[in-house]
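FORM 12-B: Structure-to-Sequence Request
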């Protein structure tokens, strides 16, 4: 793939301090993520971090790394600086993979890059998969996305969208809408490097602040996001100590 994969990584984490350096089968998590991304066949895989300890761990295992400022408010700001440090051109494609996704499906990486190639009017791309349970649909921690006919995002929300008026007439959600089926947003993003550098200059939007969803800033400012709908769920990420133990067991299994 003619794209650069950028992996933001910071040591500070309220739920799991030091997460990028957590041991997974003898290697730091950030190295496992970079190795997984390398199997996608991208032009380059680079970790962007503000922590010298993370940079040293990457360098020790042959992972390319750039050291960014420590005062970035968001991961997107860190990625924007990384684009500058790497000298990426405005039209270059960047795929952002989170540093806590050691089991990321590499097909999603390719799909995000492909989405930008197929939809030149979009400055960003992302992914989603169908929701198959009411519990997931009503969970505010599960971000939903609604798309237009061309597969571009109309809106992201923590609310159960789309609302099935006739199926939930009494106000209680007891069944899922089927046409269209609700989609769970997957937190992987593709960018055109020029837009990624411009993103930090865009003012935060009211809907972004209400929903606490940074991607809504893009839609608020009139830009478009292509959405790839995957047939499968992504592998588990690592947000909690319980997640870490579950993923550790995966790497302890004999190959």
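FORM 12-B RESPONSE
SEQUENCE OUT:
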């Amino acid at each position: 793939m003619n794209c650069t994969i950028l992996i933001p990584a910071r040591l500070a984490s309220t739920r799991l301090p030091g997460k990028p350096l957590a041991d997974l089968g003898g290697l730091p998590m950030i190295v496992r993520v970079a190795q997984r991304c390398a199997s996608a066949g991208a032009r380059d895989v680079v970790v962007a971090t503000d922590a010298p300890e993370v940079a040293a761990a990457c360098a020790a295992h042959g992972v390319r790394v750039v050291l960014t400022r420590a005062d970035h408010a968001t991961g997107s700001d860190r990625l924007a600086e990384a684009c500058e440090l790497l000298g990426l051109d405005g039209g270059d494609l960047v795929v952002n993979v989170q540093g806590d996704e050691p089991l990321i499906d590499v097909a999603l990486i390719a799909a995000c890059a492909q989405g930008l190639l197929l939809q030149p009017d979009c400055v960003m791309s992302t992914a989603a998969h169908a929701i198959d349970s009411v519990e997931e649909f009503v969970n505010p921690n599960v971000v939903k996305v609604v798309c237009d006919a061309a597969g571009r995002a109309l809106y992201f929300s923590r609310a159960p969208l789309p609302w099935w008026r006739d199926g939930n007439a009494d106000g209680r959600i007891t069944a899922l809408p089927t046409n269209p089926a609700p989609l769970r947003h997957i937190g992987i993003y593709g960018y055109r490097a020029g837009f990624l550098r411009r993103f930090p200059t865009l003012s935060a939007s009211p809907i972004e602040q209400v929903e606490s969803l940074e991607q809504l800033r893009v839609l608020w400012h009139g830009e478009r996001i292509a959405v790839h709908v995957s047939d499968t769920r992504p592998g588990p990420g690592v947000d909690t100590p319980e997640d870490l133990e579950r993923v550790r067991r995966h790497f302890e299994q004999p190959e």
